[in-house]
Every structure is written in structure tokens, then in C-alpha cells.
Specification:
Layout: E1 2-9, E2 26-29, H1 32-36, E3 47-54, E4 58-59, H2 61-66, H3 69-74, E5 79-82, E6 85-88, E7 94-101, H4 105-110
Parallel strand pairs: 4-5
Antiparallel strand pairs: 1-3, 2-6, 3-7, 5-6
Amino acid sequence: MDIIAYHGGDAPIRRFARSRSAQGVFWFSEDKDRILAGESGASSVKYLMEARLTVDKVAGRDEYERYGLGELRGLGYDSVRLEDSWIVFDTKRIKVIRAVRVVSAADMMSGRVPG
């Protein structure tokens, strides 16, 4: 199953790398407005990445609360779905469609629109 979801970050990402992830997993949201509003837990939202997530064996809230992320991966899950949020374990399951620079209200007010 393919899902279109979003990831916020400090820099544009063309390919996700486990070495650059805090827990070796990647968080996404189907609701880009939550990311842009700072409600998703993203450390920064200078760029918004749109990605296609290919998921097959998906854990839900019950499994997420019962097991650790490493255990879920060991049990063969490739992702976790928590309402509109996704955790993906394998970078091969993430295809970045585009990375877009987010223009803040402060940028617009000052006339500094980043390129």
C-alpha cells in the first residue's frame, strides 16, 4: 500500500538516511498542516518533504503500546500507523516526491522570501 505523507525539517531531504535519525526511524504525517503549525513534533519546519511511503505490514496503536520499536521491526512490521502519523523503519520504503521551502510570516513581512 502506498501512502502520501509529509516530513518537516531544517534542510531539504532527497534521500532519508538512518544515520541522521534519532532512533533509526522516520516520522511522517498525512496532515501537512499539523507539521506547518508545529503540532507534529518536528524540530524545525524550514522545508516540507512530500513522500510516498510503501508499507505492507503495519502495526497499529495496540502493537505500538505493547512493544518497543525494535521489537516491532523484529516481528516483521515495516511501519506503525498512529492516526494520521506514520513511523517507517526502512529507508527503501520512503520515496521523496519533492522538498518545498516553507516561507514564514516573518519572512514575508520583512520582504525576505527565501529562494
